Amino acid sequence: MQRSLNPGLTWPAWLVPQEDDRHVVASLESLTPEDWSALLAAATRHNLVGMLAWRLKQPSLIGCVPERVQAQLSQIQRTAAVRGLVHQAELHRVLRALGAVGVQPVVYKGALVAHTLYPEPGCRPMGDIDLWIADDEVPRAWQAMEGLGYQQRSKSRRPLALQRERDGEIQFYSDAPGHGLIELHWGVFAGEWLRWASSVDRAGVRERIEPIDLLGHPVYRLAHEDALIQLAVHAAINHQLSGNALRSLLDVALLAQQRLDWATVAQRVQAWGLATAVSLVFALVAEIYRVPAILSGLALLPLPVHRYKLVTHFIDAQRIIEGYDLSASPRRLLYQLTLIDRPGDTFRLLHGALWPEVSWIHRRYGSSDLRTRLQHTLGVLQGKV
Q1: What burial letters (b/e) apply to 119-132, b meaning 16+ CB within 10 Å?
Q2: What pTM value is reported for the model?
Q3: How many Cβ atoms are within 10 Å of 31's Cβ, its own excluded?
């Protein structure tokens, strides 16, 4: 049985660089050898060990780290650096190939934050590279990916016709050394919840993209305000604050420290019907990472006490730190219902999730008969769909 850190320890907050690290120093000096082992194990489980190693090697903290742990951190940093270089080389290769056919994608999520928000790319591991391209760019991008040796793969329950209609993605994969999973997206706000329970201004998001240079390639990124909303929504809704939730919340914490127009964030979130989900993420970031900047957003998006208690009945800071996986639970649908801002959208989501339109059912399962529909409905209620 794995040993857990003392519940009173707030190790995730140590990951965010501070002007004054005295409170972190005091916490580190109180750690026992067993606590150090549990700390490294916890950070590893959450895919945050690279960032932890970088923080603890800083001059203000390294004196509090036992020599044996320093040796472990050095090895962790070397491994993270190599992993970061591999991902960086793959991103460079893909962007160069896409640029050669006239495609300049919007780079977002892990591939962008690793190179713009984290101190070193290796501090932020990722399982894939996410790129948003226009629909008319898909044929050229597809050809470029195949030219690099990637093969398109589709999950049987996520056919491309359905992905295109729902702002989904095309997955390209290669098992060659230094290659992995590349996802070319039709949009950055995908999923059935967003389709039925929100009104995201997708055209506006596209109009606001900003040109940047990444690894020597001209690409685009989302405007900071849109990027913050996207990261929060993806964590809370698409992944139900499960899996790498602690890492996703750190992404939000670091982006929140950039120059942002918080009034604009609040206005868009409220207009799009995403206030509950985004406010929940802001509250969790404030509690877990103690980033003062996020309080500006939270003040403009106050989550009523009764709503906060309802949502955190399913997921809260302690469960996230412990690694609770809500996405694998039948309670997932109930949790998603608590995130809906507008009462009328509740029925829309329930109807869309439990009894989708014929075209959706047929594209998803290849059949739209009553048996297929009932199996789908049962799967949703069991948390399997």
Answers
A1: ebbbbbbbebbbbb
A2: 0.92
A3: 20
